[in-house]
Please model this.
Amino acid sequence: MFIQEKGMVILFVFCCLFAGVQSLLNITLPRKQNGDVTLPCWIPEPVPKNISVRWYSAKDSWLTFGTRVYKHRTYLSVQKPAPNEWNLHIKNLAQSFADVYTCHTDTNVTVSIISLVVESEPKMEDGLSTGKYYTVTEGDNATMKCVVSGKPEPIIEWFRWFRGNESYPLNVYGSQLKIPGVQRYAADLYTCKAKNKHGEVKKNISMTVDFEPEVDVMSPVVYAKQGEAAVLSCVVQGSPLVDVYWTDKGGNRNSTWWKYWIQTIPAGNGIPVIFINMIIRPAIISIHDYGNYTCNAKSNESHVQKGVELKKPEEKSADDSLTHN
Ligand SMILES: *[C@@H]1O[C@H](CO)[C@@H](O)[C@H](O)[C@H]1NC(C)=O
Ligand SMILES: *[C@@H]1O[C@H](CO)[C@@H](O)[C@H](O)[C@H]1NC(C)=O
Ligand SMILES: *[C@@H]1O[C@H](CO)[C@@H](O)[C@H](O)[C@H]1NC(C)=O
Ligand SMILES: *[C@@H]1O[C@H](CO)[C@@H](O)[C@H](O)[C@H]1NC(C)=O
Ligand SMILES: *[C@@H]1O[C@H](CO)[C@@H](O)[C@H](O)[C@H]1NC(C)=O
Ligand SMILES: *[C@@H]1O[C@H](CO)[C@@H](O)[C@H](O)[C@H]1NC(C)=O
Ligand SMILES: *[C@@H]1O[C@H](CO)[C@@H](O)[C@H](O)[C@H]1NC(C)=O
Ligand SMILES: *[C@@H]1O[C@H](CO)[C@@H](O)[C@H](O)[C@H]1NC(C)=O
Ligand SMILES: *[C@@H]1O[C@H](CO)[C@@H](O)[C@H](O)[C@H]1NC(C)=O
Model:
């Protein structure tokens, strides 16, 4: 208690000598300069003979004593352009040097308090963000993340491409884009854009929504005369699809051949839809070709099929009367 009071007396003496704290500064530096900075600390003349000065930082505590440097020697030095100055020089300023620096005399009189703010353009933290390709299962909650550093704190905005060439703002802000119960139609290219006054950075995330294959045929019964062409059409959805093909009544896979022409048309732009048509070439159909054909879609987990029956037109009127009755 007594010692503390004594300390206060000394402090008071220095207080009047130095006329109090000299600088209370906020130094803000755009990091792009990546340069050096000098934090001032000076005592008005006359300087007490054997006075010495220390620099402290909130993070690292005691940094220097006199001209000696105790921490970060590669980057820090004490410059004395005049006997009454102990300026702290920081080389190759990095974001990690953002801190509050105080310069004290060895009797604990504060000479300067400097809050050093290192500003920087946005930087994508790829390790903490979602990768370029993101796969989610239909029905799950999709979450895409863009973690961005930078000062002032960048504003992050999300866009969707709608499979086009122009990005469309989703009016979602922040580091995450969440799509609860994601549906297959949400599969697309998304972009996050992070911006502050020093610049902007963007990242593309291509989201794939996995779902089990589904098969649909355009018409379950197709009528064709002998000598005519017949088109059996099928639409397959699924992601990822391992295989899509037609089989004949014997279960044999029919690929493009002199008799059959298999037309496979992806919907394009990454839409997980494939149109697969089996066209029986004209002047080919014989009595043996009537019967059931099957459109097949396979994922690694399942195999889905739907049949089309190829019939003689003569059977049509019979079928119609059946349905009408
Ligand atoms: C420095 O910044 C702090 C926090 O932003 C503020 O409270 C203070 O007034 C500023 N000081 C000066 C000298 O600009
Ligand atoms: C300055 O030196 C004198 C004598 O050498 C000593 O008594 C005094 O404590 C010193 N003051 C400081 C602040 O080091
Ligand atoms: C200065 O302050 C530090 C901690 O804040 C303390 O350890 C030290 O004894 C003080 N020195 C003087 C001379 O009061
Ligand atoms: C999706 O999120 C909702 C609430 O946010 C939660 O109730 C649900 O269980 C989540 N679904 C899955 C598949 O994780
Ligand atoms: C988008 O692509 C279409 C077709 O490729 C093209 O006609 C159109 O000009 C493009 N729009 C932009 C904004 O690039
Ligand atoms: C994102 O993708 C679009 C469309 O392919 C492309 O034009 C753009 O350059 C990409 N942006 C980045 C940051 O990769
Ligand atoms: C297609 O099916 C027919 C039977 O209708 C069969 O004779 C033929 O070999 C099959 N083609 C191929 C390429 O598997
Ligand atoms: C084709 O399949 C349908 C339905 O599975 C069946 O009713 C019909 O008898 C089959 N036709 C032939 C020729 O096998
Ligand atoms: C399907 O399984 C095989 C073998 O397990 C694997 O090599 C392949 O990558 C899988 N395909 C898809 C689309 O998941």
Observations:
- Helices lie at 2-18, 314-324.
- The chain is about 10% helix and 50% strand.
- The radius of gyration is 38 Å.
